[in-house]
Amino acid sequence: MWNPIGKTGSRRRCRRVLAGWVLIVSALFSCLGRASAGTDLAVPPDLVEETETLFSGIRVRRLSLPIEGIDREYHLLLISDLHIIPEEDPQVDEDKKENVRQRREDYFHTSEGVFSDQLWETLPAELDAQNADMVLFAGDMTDYCTKAATDALKKGFDALSTPWMFVRGDHDYGAWYSYRHETQKDAIRMQADIAPRKKVMEMETGNLTVIGWDNSTSQMTEEGLKDLTRYLSEAEEKKRPVLFLCHVPLIGDVTDQLAEKSREIWDRNLLWGDGDEDCYYQPDETTKAALDLVLEEGGPVRLVCSGHLHFPYAGPLTDSITQIVAAPAYEGTINEIILKP
After folding, report:
1. Alpha carbon distances (Å) from 21 to 24, 27, 32, 124, 147
2. Long-range CB contacts (< 8 A, 24+ apart) of 270-275?
3. Is a pLDDT exceeding 80 seen at residue 91?
4. CA quadruple 63, 68, 71, 77: dihedral positive or negative?
5. Which of 96, 69, 71, 77 is nearest to 85 (CA)?
6. Contact 138, 79 (CB under 8 A)
7. pLDDT value at residue 117
8. Mean pLDDT value across residues 99-105
9. What would the mean pLDDT of 171-184 be, rounded to a whole number?
10. Low-confidence winner among 6-15, 118-127, 291-300, 332-341 (lowest mean pLDDT)
11. SS3 of 15, please?
12. CA 102, CA 108: separation in Å to the nearest integer?
């Protein structure tokens, strides 16, 4: 997976040497209860977080943590909530164009004024330059589903040479602004054309298993539960640690910090939770069974990665599972996750 050494590789090595010293210093502060970047949420002492701005202006939120059972160091990139809105999308209904234009101008751009669709034109090359083992796309890469939006997303995916997985969010499937041009069935078909579409999918990189839950803003399907059960069982038999990728974060039993922050920002607890009526996402019987499998004590899942909340978080989900919520990509931020044996 590593590119031949060149100018980009040399800069990358230099950044990692410098980052290593930063991580050591950051670790000392984390032991004193340092808060995670961008929030007031406490980082667990075995997880180190720091930020870096690349020459291109892209910011890297780098998190380093030990994972039991892996055979070497892994570098993963987590991207979520880019919310691509093409300029003057021809598939947007006339009576919705002003609303869409306002969303693009008000929300989905960097502080320097680079819009999400413009950012995506160069971001795939930036991701490849990081020499990661895998890129994890955690959903809401588009703000809605039209041909123009999905074509733009597919163009970026096609340009990537790093292996990647894409689990969609509700926005990626949403035909909300194009009912006169495209139906919800059209949206589903278009999504299937740009990337593998399966309720639960699985990939392996080295001895790490990555399992993804597509469109986790909706309930788990019976077929998805069967696949999840099989993938987790196979990982356990092979003694392979699992990274679980989804769009909506999960509620755990160690801390309610993430739920509290969600209430503060969104006035709602936008997490999946069983038995907690405060959670916006309430599981049916099938989804509850899936969540129980993911959070099972002694199970193979070691890390859950998600997005959806538009603010970053890193902390314990259970006694054995860490949860990382991505900083939103529309801000010009990518999340690098370094897993150490």
Report:
1. 5, 10, 18, 28, 46
2. 270/308, 270/309, 272/216, 272/248
3. yes
4. negative
5. 96
6. yes
7. 97
8. 97
9. 93
10. 6-15
11. helix
12. 10
Q: List Cβ neighbours of 286 (8 Å cut-off, separation of 6 or more).
A: 219, 220, 221, 222, 225
Crossing angle of the two packed helices 184-194 and 147-159, in degrees rounded to 10: 10
Q: Which two tokens stand for residue 81?
A: 């909530």
In order of 247, 314, 315, 323, the CA distances from 253 in angstroms are 19, 15, 12, 12
Backbone angles phi, psi at 318, to 5 degrees: -135, -175
| CA-derived radius of gyration, the chain | 19
Position 46 scores a pLDDT of 84
* Structure-block tokens of residue 199: 């309720």
Give the residue ranges of DSSP H helices in 110-221.
116-129, 147-159, 170-173, 184-194
Token pair of 38 as six digits: 């961008």
Please name every residue paired with 134 in a beta bridge, in sequence order, or none if there are none: 76
**C-alpha 339 chain-centroid distance:** 16
59-66 and 333-340 beta bridge pairing? parallel
DSSP conformational letter for 89: -
Distance, first Cα to last Cα, the chain: 19
Helices (H) and strands (E) in the chain, counts: 9, 14
Least confident of 48-52, 141-145, 243-247: 48-52
Judge whether 316 and 66 are in contact, CB under 8 Å.
no
Domains of the chain: 7-334 (3.60.21.10)
DSSP one-letter string for 153-175? HHHHHHH--S-EEE---HHHH--
Choice between 140 and 47, residue whose per-residue pLDDT is larger = 140
H runs (alpha helix) in 195-256: 222-237
C-alpha angle 68/71/73, rounded to 5°? Answer: 90
